[in-house]
Amino acid sequence: MSKSANGPTRQKAPRKPRPSIQPPLETQDGGDPRAALGEIIYTERMRLGISQEELAARAGLDRTYVSGMERGLRNPTFLVLLRLARELAIDPAILVRIEIRKAPTNL
Amino acid sequence: MSKSANGPTRQKAPRKPRPSIQPPLETQDGGDPRAALGEIIYTERMRLGISQEELAARAGLDRTYVSGMERGLRNPTFLVLLRLARELAIDPAILVRIEIRKAPTNL
DNA sequence: TTGTGACTAAGAGTCCGTC
DNA sequence: CGACGGACTCTTAGTCACA
Known about the structure:
Two copies of one chain form a homodimer.
Chain A: E1 26-27, H1 33-48, H2 52-59, H3 63-70, H4 78-87, H5 92-95, E2 100-101
Antiparallel strand pairs in A: 1-2
Helix pairs in contact in A: 2-3
Chain B binds a DNA duplex (19 and 19 nucleotides) through α3.
GO molecular function (chains A, B): DNA binding; DNA-binding transcription factor activity
GO cellular component, one term (chains A, B): cytosol
Pfam family, one (chains A, B): HTH_3
């Protein structure tokens, strides 16, 4: 049945998979920066009085993706942030106007 | 394989492999926004007088990753942008202070 | 000290459908 | 209209060896 019985053979290069996870970031009030971003997007979208679907269409994104961002479940890329800001008619800076701090451990 | 076959060998149209068809974005001068970001990172890093390696270490990133961003080859995520801004001791807004416009199609 | 190609795991982003 | 989930493809995160 099992075959692994002989030779040392292949031990697939132990190329470091993903050992280190970067220190997490949080907002000043201990929240998730993604959630803060979501609130900003929601607020700005409401200001334009358009639906998620409409914003998604304008920005060339998927409707469910915009939904996910507003709920703080997504971590969009630089290019997507720019695209969003553009369609929301705001300066990209507004989307990242988030006060953050280091570790979540203790302080 | 069940699947009534007779017709053209049309392979069951399995999925719609949408290869990301997002409309491209460019800076006002027709450049790549990622390159603009890279310049900003470079400038700010120089201001601190530190090496890519040093910045990478502080931000918990890999040296070659920082290198890639400065050369405009990477499209970092929101969280990476935040982490970078924090270590560069600048407001995240500075990293996205980029004037952009739509597509390169025709104008 | 930095550039670059190659690589794997994870997640970004899309599309379907349901509530 | 929007939340949410599944399944999917392509890109990014993150690392290394070597130029």
